[in-house]
Write a structure and sequence with these properties.
It is built from seven helices and 18 strands. It is an alpha/beta fold and about 400 residues long. It has two domains: about 240 residues, FAD/NAD(P)-binding domain (3-Layer(bba) Sandwich), CATH 3.50.50.60; about 150 residues, D-Amino Acid Oxidase, Chain A, domain 2. The strands form three sheets. Strands 1, 2, 8, 9, 10, 11, 17 and 18 form an eight-stranded mixed sheet that branches. A hairpin with a 4-residue loop joins strand 10 and strand 11. The protein is elongated, with a radius of gyration of 21 Å.
Length: about 400
C-alpha cells in the first residue's frame, strides 16, 4: 500500500491521531478513530502483519476463562457479543467476508485427571453465570465422530465462535483506506515530546510525523520507541506461539470436524479450529523465548502429538503451513488501553491470547478515549495507567 500522506516538520501537517503499529489492533483503532472524524495516520512499514496473522481466530470468551481473570471475562463477553454486528459492518464497508462462524466449541478431557480439571472449570463457568453443558464421552463423540475413543467427557459451549484473522486484517486494511486513514509506510523510531505532552513520532530517516494524539499499538514491540518517559509504563513482553495449518478432506459426507475442539493434553493446551475453507488450524505452543519466531521441530511435534490424542485421523491430513508469532502480554494477561500518564500518549496493546476476540471493543474504546480523553466505563479496569513502575526488555 502506497504512502498517501507524510506529515512532518517540513509540510506543517499535524494529524489528530497517529497510530503506531499496523497489526489488527492498530488497524481497528485507526478505522474507528477515522470514523469519529479524526484525521488519522497509521505508521507501519508493512501494515497488515502482526500476531493476528498467526492466530487461530477463536472467539473464546467462555473457554478462555481462567481462575483470577473474572474481570477480563466481562470485557471478552462484551466484545464477543459485538462480533455479528462488527462482521456485518466490515462486510458492508469493504465487501469482505471475515468468515465469522457461530459454530461453538467442544472442550474435552482425555483421562481422569483432565476430567476432574474440566469439572472444576465447569463449576467456575457456572459461578460466573455462563451457559455450558457437561457431556459424557459418548455424547462428545456423537457430536464429533472423529474424536478418539478415549475421550472421557467434555463441555459443549455454543457461545464460543470463530473468525479468520487473516481475512479480518485484510478487511480492516480496506476499511481504513476507504475511511481516509493515511498509511505511512515507515518505521517509528522515537516518540516526540514537546513541553509536557507527546507530539508525534520520529520516523526512520529523521522525519517527524506530528500528531495531537499518539497511540502505541505495536503489539509486543509497543515499548520499543526511544523517548518514552520513565514515568510511562508499557509493560508488555512477547510470548511465542507456534501453530500449524492442515487441509481437511473435501467432498461429500460428514465433515472431518464441525466445531472447535479444545483440550489439555499432558498439561498443555491444544485446540483444533476447522474453517469452512477446508483449513484445520492446530495450536498453539506457549513459550517464553523472547523475540524468537522460529518454527521448531519440537513445537511441531508437540502440537501434532497432542492433537493426535484428540483426533487420531489427523496425522493423515496434508500439512499446509507452519508458523510462529509473538503474543503481546501484560503482567495480568489483560490489555493496556487508553491514555497514559503523558498527555497525548495512548496505549492499545497487551491483548495476549485475546487480540482477535477483543478487536471490536478495543476499537470502540480507543475511539472514545481519543475523542474524549477518557475510557468508557467498561474499559476502565484495563487502563494503560494501572502499572506505573513495571518495565520490560525491548529489542534494540
Amino acid at each position: 500500500m502506497d504512502l498517501r500522506s507524510h506529515g512532518g516538520d517540513g509540510d506543517g501537517t499535524v494529524y489528530d491521531a497517529a497510530v503506531v503499529g499496523g497489526g489488527l489492533i492498530g488497524l481497528v483503532t485507526a478505522w474507528r478513530a477515522a470514523g469519529r472524524g479524526l484525521r488519522t495516520a497509521l505508521v507501519d512499514p508493512r501494515p497488515g502483519g502482526g500476531a493476528a496473522r498467526v492466530a487461530a481466530g477463536m472467539l473464546a470468551a467462555v473457554t478462555e476463562l481462567h481462575h483470577g481473570e473474572e474481570a477480563l471475562l466481562d470485557l471478552n463477553l462484551a466484545s464477543a457479543g459485538r462480533y455479528p454486528e462488527f462482521a456485518a459492518e466490515l462486510a458492508e464497508a469493504t465487501g469482505t467476508d471475515i468468515a465469522y462462524r457461530a459454530c461453538g466449541t467442544l472442550q474435552v478431557a482425555l483421562d481422569a485427571d483432565d476430567r476432574a480439571q474440566l469439572r472444576e472449570l465447569h463449576a467456575l463457568q457456572r459461578r460466573c453465570g455462563l451457559d455450558t453443558q457437561w457431556l459424557t464421552g459418548r455424547e462428545c463423540r456423537r457430536l464429533e465422530p472423529m474424536l478418539a475413543p478415549g475421550v472421557r467427557g467434555g463441555l459443549r459451549v455454543d457461545g464460543d465462535h470463530q473468525t479468520d484473522p487473516r481475512l479480518l486484517v485484510a478487511a480492516l486494511l480496506t476499511a481504513c483506506e476507504r475511511a481516509g486513514v493515511s498509511f505511512v509506510n515507515a518505521t517509528a523510531t522515537g516518540l516526540v515530546v514537546r513541553g509536557d505532552r507527546a507530539a508525534g513520532v520520529r520516523l526512520d530517516g529523521g522525519t517527524v510525523l506530528a500528531a495531537d494524539r499518539t497511540v502505541l499499538a505495536g503489539g509486543s514491540r509497543s515499548a520499543g520507541l526511544d523517548g518514552i518517559p520513565p514515568s510511562v509504563a508499557v509493560p508488555v513482553r512477547p510470548v511465542k506461539g507456534q501453530i500449524l495449518r492442515l487441509r481437511m478432506p473435501s467432498g461429500g459426507g460428514a465433515p472431518f470436524l464441525s466445531r472447535t475442539v479444545r483440550a489439555v493434553v499432558r498439561g498443555e493446551q491444544v485446540y483444533l479450529v476447522p474453517r469452512a475453507s477446508g483449513e484445520l488450524v492446530v495450536g498453539a505452543t506457549v513459550e517464553e523465548q523472547g523475540w524468537d519466531t522460529s518454527v521448531t521441530a519440537g513445537g511441531v511435534y508437540q502440537l501434532l502429538r497432542d492433537a493426535r490424542e484428540l483426533l487420531p485421523g489427523l496425522t493423515e491430513l496434508p500439512l499446509a503451513e507452519t508458523c510462529a508469532g509473538l503474543r503481546p502480554t501484560s503482567p495480568d494477561n489483560a490489555p493496556l488501553l487508553g491514555p497514559t500518564a503523558l498527555p497525548g500518549l495512548f496505549l492499545a496493546t497487551g491483548h495476549h491470547r485475546n487480540g482477535v476476540l477483543l478487536a471490536p471493543i478495543t476499537g470502540e474504546a480507543m475511539a472514545v478515549a481519543l475523542t474524549t480523553g477518557e475510557l468508557p466505563d467498561y474499559a476502565r479496569p484495563f487502563s494503560a495507567q494501572r502499572f506505573s513502575h513495571d518495565h520490560r526488555e525491548v529489542p534494540a
